[in-house]
């Protein structure tokens, strides 16, 4: 559905060029949830913004890559994919909201505090679907009901600030899915919520997604969320994806020392309860490594060549890949490139 | 035998609600409503619950930032309300706070060394600058900050480094109790584990007691000896760590445990999430305040407020039902 190839987004700052996203590739199939996981500052949000041409410019600039969006009708009239990087601003406006929708950690960044929820939902319908008046209102109410909001008719008259954080996030989801997009980008949608409300919202996203062709890019820093939601996982570190693959493979057999280290260091509800095996040090700013592996300063298996050469990408048929110098990573079917 | 360091007895903190145009009566927000617990010397008590349940208000009342509406706080054998002047200052020195947001809890215009030295200066601990510097260096070393960083400003530090600085400052006056309000919630995964370990090492080294406030139960399991679960200003369950995580007796505790997402893909584990939001503490539900969200509520729960009762010598629960009665029953939908 969405195929991102070698995406690079740089920022020019006082300290020079920041390579916030430095050659990121991934694909989201129809009906699939891809989780992009990493610690703050590693480039997750900039990746998402780059897809939709939303990077603030200046200082930001998407300098390379392709963002290919498959044509609307599957197996249609052979129309080719649209490269969003080459799309005009008006084409992009059509895509945003209509074919790719986005929700954020803080719903208030996309909800207008001065307008009722009803006005905002019907506005979206008017812009993208040319739907007005009573039918639009009905569709909006129906959407609120489907995201689990009771008394939907009533709630259409509410202002965003009259709602709890969880309800607001539901409204955001309703708004995002109003025009039945093909791809939903959700940037830390539950990070600000209590675990109980997080569980509700995640269950909702899954319920709305299952059985539809909706592809989801779910951005999170929480490996618990990843384990629960993802079909596939991309682990990001300092502007690059260091490991990618099916969710079971990543959790059962993490191959990159960063992924493995993170999983070991997580406090859990069961198992031994002693000192946590930590990854020492701090994540570097995205794209600050000149040469070699950006994880080298923190890696427990670092070797000489890790400092000197960029690590190779090892690929498996399952769509899994790992970017690391370690020899034992390449198994029989792993191919070094 | 361990000794009680902090005793909170029947603590209530109610805030007046701003009155509307036609309201005659003053209404109250019962942020904390009759909370009691004890922390032993050198031990860690975890305080958990959804946001708004009164955790921070409890913490602030203990250190004197919120005035209790009712109840008593005893610290190191002394009733705080009886103390004033130097005795109160002395008692306050013994309890220090660490906050969630290292960004807003450190003065952005001060250098790291001065931030850590500030409590020492406020309490005139050292007469000479050299002694003070030595102490600051020891503190920075204890929390894993290079002394070469003492000239940095908070914005030049990472979140984890700022939290280390916050901890160093809290330790400056050698407190016996550190109240840590969500100390790792804002930190990244790899840094969270570092700070959890640091707090543990400091406890072993300095035998500090912690009141550890968190909403992440997995973190609580790794840090606490005993856990108190709050809902809408009241304690619903108190139990030793192992017991709480293996044999929770309050349906709310169980719901919180179920909401934790383990970092393991398990497609079929998904239980029904806890429904609804926390109700307003201004107008709490009748009976058991949890009943509108409880999957097991019976008629009695709507009418009668359950008291916190001992189920064993160290396990207290405020629920009309026993786990035998509620486990395996999900009444949601049955009466809808
Ligand atoms: N407006 C900006 N100006 C300069 N640098 C930026 C800007 N936005 C983001 N960056 C840089 O991009 C990096 C990645 O940021 P972001 O994608 O927001 O991280 P994440 O979402 O993973 O926490 C940051 O480390 C930051 O240095
Ligand atoms: N100074 C205050 N004035 C009025 N209400 C307050 C004040 N401080 C906290 N509250 C209210 O008290 C309740 C408990 O808040 P708090 O202790 O911060 O919860 P928690 O830390 O568990 O999230 C909330 O409903 C909050 O809005
Ligand atoms: S390339 Fe080297 S430093 Fe980087 S993760 Fe692999 S082993 Fe560690
Ligand atoms: Mg982000
Ligand atoms: Mg709080």
Task: Walk me through what this model shows.
Chain A is an alpha/beta fold and 337 residues long. Chain A is 31% helix and 23% strand. Chain A has a nine-stranded mixed β-sheet, sandwiched between helices. In chain A, a hairpin with a 2-residue loop joins strand 1 (2-13) and strand 2 (16-28). The mean pLDDT of chain A is 90. Chain B has one domain (4-19, 26-94, 175-335): P-loop containing nucleotide triphosphate hydrolases (Rossmann fold). Chain B is globular, with a radius of gyration of 22 Å. Chain B is built from twelve helices and twelve strands. In chain B, 32% of the residues lie in helices and 22% in strands. Chain B has 336 residues and is α/β, with parallel strands linked by helices. Chains A and B meet through helix 7, helix 8, helix 9 and helix 10 of A and helix 6, helix 7, helix 8 and helix 10 of B. The complex binds adenosine-5'-diphosphate (ADP) (2 copies), iron/sulfur cluster and magnesium ion (MG) (2 copies). One adenosine-5'-diphosphate (ADP) binds at residues 15, 29, 31, 49, 51-57, 281 of chain B.
- Terminal CA distance of chain A: 26 Å
Helix content of chain B: 25-40%
Distance between the termini of chain B: 52 Å
Q: Helix fraction of chain A?
A: 25-40%
Return the CATH architecture of chain B: 3-Layer(aba) Sandwich
List keywords for this structure.
heterodimer; A: 337 residues; alpha/beta; four-stranded antiparallel sheet; 11 helices; B: 336 residues; Rossmann fold; eight-stranded mixed sheet; 12 helices; binds adenosine-5'-diphosphate; binds iron/sulfur cluster; binds magnesium ion
What would a concise description of this structure say?
With 337 residues, chain A is an alpha/beta fold. Chain A contains 11 helices and 13 strands.
């Amino acid at each position: 559905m969405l195929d991102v190839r070698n995406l690079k987004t740089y920022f020019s700052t006082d300290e020079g060029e920041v390579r916030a996203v430095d050659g990121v590739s991934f694909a989201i199939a129809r009906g699939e949830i891809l989780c992009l996981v990493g610690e703050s500052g590693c480039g997750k949000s900039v990746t998402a913004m780059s897809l939709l041409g939303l990077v603030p410019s200046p200082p930001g600039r998407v300098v390379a890559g392709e963002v290919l969006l498959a044509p609307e009708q599957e197996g249609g009239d052979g129309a080719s994919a649209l490269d969003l990087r080459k799309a005009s601003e008006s084409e992009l406006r059509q895509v945003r909201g209509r074919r790719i929708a986005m929700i954020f950690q803080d719903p208030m960044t996309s909800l207008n505090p001065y307008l009722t929820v009803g006005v905002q939902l019907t506005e979206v319908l008017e812009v993208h679907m040319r739907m007005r008046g009573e039918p639009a209102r009905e569709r909006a109410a129906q959407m609120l009901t489907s995201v689990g909001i009771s008394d939907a008719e009533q709630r259409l008259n509410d202002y965003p600030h009259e709602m709890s954080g969880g309800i607001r996030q539901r409204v955001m989801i309703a708004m995002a899915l109003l025009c039945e997009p093909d791809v939903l980008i959700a940037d830390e949608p539950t990070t600000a919520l209590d675990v109980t409300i997080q569980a509700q919202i995640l269950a909702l996203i899954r319920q709305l997604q299952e059985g539809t062709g909706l592809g989801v890019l779910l951005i999170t820093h929480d490996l618990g969320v990843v384990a629960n939601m993802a079909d596939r996982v991309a682990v990001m570190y300092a502007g690059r994806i260091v490991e990618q693959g099916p969710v079971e493979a990543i959790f059962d057999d993490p191959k990159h020392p960063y992924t493995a280290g993170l999983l070991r260091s997580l406090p859990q509800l069961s198992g031994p309860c002693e000192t946590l095996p930590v990854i020492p040090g701090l994540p570097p700013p995205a794209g600050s490594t000149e040469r070699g592996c950006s994880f080298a300063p923190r890696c427990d298996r670092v070797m000489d060549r890790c400092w000197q050469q960029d690590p190779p990408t090892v690929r498996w048929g399952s769509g899994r890949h790992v970017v690391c110098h370690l020899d034992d990573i390449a198994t029989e079917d792993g191919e070094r490139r | 035998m361990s000794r009680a360091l902090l005793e909170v007895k029947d603590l209530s903190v109610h805030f007046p609600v701003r009155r509307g145009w036609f309201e005659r009566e003053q209404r109250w927000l019962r942020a904390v409503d009759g909370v009691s617990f004890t922390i032993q010397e050198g031990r860690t008590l975890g305080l958990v619950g959804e946001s708004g349940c009164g955790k921070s208000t409890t913490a602030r009342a203990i250190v004197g930032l919120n005035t209790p509406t009712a109840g008593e706080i005893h610290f190191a054998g002394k009733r705080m309300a009886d103390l004033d002047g130097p005795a109160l200052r002395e008692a306050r020195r013994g309890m220090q706070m660490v906050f969630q947001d290292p960004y807003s809890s450190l003065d952005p215009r001060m250098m790291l060394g001065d931030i850590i030295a500030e409590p020492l200066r406020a309490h005139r601990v050292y007469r000479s600058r050299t002694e003070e510097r030595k102490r600051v260096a020891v503190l920075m070393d204890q929390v894993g900050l290079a002394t070469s960083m003492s000239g940095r400003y908070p914005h030049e530090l990472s979140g984890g480094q700022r939290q280390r600085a916050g901890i160093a400052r809290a330790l400056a006056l050698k407190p016996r109790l550190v109240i840590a309000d969500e100390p790792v919630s804002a930190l990244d995964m790899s840094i969270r584990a570092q700070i959890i370990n640091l707090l543990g090492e400091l406890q072993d080294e300095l035998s500090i007691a912690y009141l550890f406030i968190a909403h992440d139960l997995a973190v609580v399991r790794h840090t606490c000896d005993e856990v108190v679960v709050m809902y809408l200003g009241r304690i619903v369950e108190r139990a030793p760590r192992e017991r709480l995580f293996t044999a929770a007796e309050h349906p709310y505790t169980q719901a919180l445990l179920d909401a934790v997402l383990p970092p393991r893909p398990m497609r079929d584990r998904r239980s029904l999430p806890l429904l609804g939001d926390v109700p307003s503490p201004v107008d709490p539900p009748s009976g058991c305040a949890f009943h509108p969200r409880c999957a097991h509520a019976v008629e009695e729960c709507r009418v009668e407020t359950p008291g916190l009762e001992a189920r064993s010598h160290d396990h207290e629960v405020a629920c009309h039902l026993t786990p035998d009665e509620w486990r395996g029953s999900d009444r949601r939908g049955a009466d809808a």
